[in-house]
Amino acid sequence: SLHLYHPSALNTFEQIVYSAKGKQIVVFLDYDGTLSPIVADPDKAFMTRKMRATLKGISRHFPIAIVTGRCRDKVYNFVKLAELGMDITGPTKSPKATVLFQSTSQFLPMIDEVYKILLEKTKTIPRAKVENNKFFLSLHFRCVDKKSWAALAEKVRLVLNEYPQLRLTQGRKVLEIRPTIKWDKGKALEFLLESLGYKNLNDVFPIYIVLRSRGQGIGILVSRVAKETNASYSLQCRSNSFL
Predict the structure, then answer these.
(1) Which among 42, 87, 177, 190 is placed 20 to 30 Å from 134, CA to CA?
(2) Which fold has domain 2-101+183-240?
(3) C-alpha angle with apex 209: 1 to 43, nearest 5 degrees?
(4) pTM surpassing 0.85?
C-alpha cells in the first residue's frame, strides 16, 4: 500500500520537524495537483483563496519556489502573489543562468514550429489541447475519447520523426515535447538551491519530491494510489497539502 513505503506526512509530522531542527527550511512546490486541482482544462487550474492565503502565510517564514513545467507568466497569473519570485533563470549575473538560457533558447523557433504543426494535426481529434509552455509543448488528452488516444499519440510521433532534437514524454493525461537536453525538475531544484546559496550547505532542509537522491530534505507525494516515486512521505489528497 501507499503508506507502507511512504508514510503519511501528517501522521509523521513530528519526525519531519525533528529532522529539520536547526536547519533553514526551503519549500519547493508543484503547481498542478498540489496548489491547484487537476482539471480538464489546464487554463482553468485556479488556486482557491484559502490555498493562496496559506501560501502567502508560509512565504513569510520560509523561502518558497514553485517548480512547474508551465510557462512562468501563466503560473504567475494563477498564483498572484508578489511575495514569490518564480523566475528560474535566477540572478542575471550568474554564468550558469546564462548557460541555461543559451542551451534552451536555441530550441525556441523549433518548438514554435512544432506547436503550429500539432495545432493543425490534432484538429481532427475533439477536445485535444496543445499548450505552448515556451521551452516545451504539452498536448492534453484528459478530455479526449479514450478510443482516440492511440491515434493522437501516433500523430505526435510522426511529427517528431522530423525533429530528432526533440523528445516525447508522458505525464498525467498529457504528452510533453521537450528538447533533448538534460533538464528536468530535479535539475531545476538543484539550480534554485545553488542560486539561493544553499547548494553546499548542510544546514538547509529542502522539502520536495526529487531531492531524496541528494541525501537532503524530504519529498512528499500527493496521491491516493501507490506509484513509483522518490518521495519519502505522502499525502492522500491535495487539500491536505497545507493543513
Answers:
(1) 190
(2) Rossmann fold (3.40.50)
(3) 100
(4) no
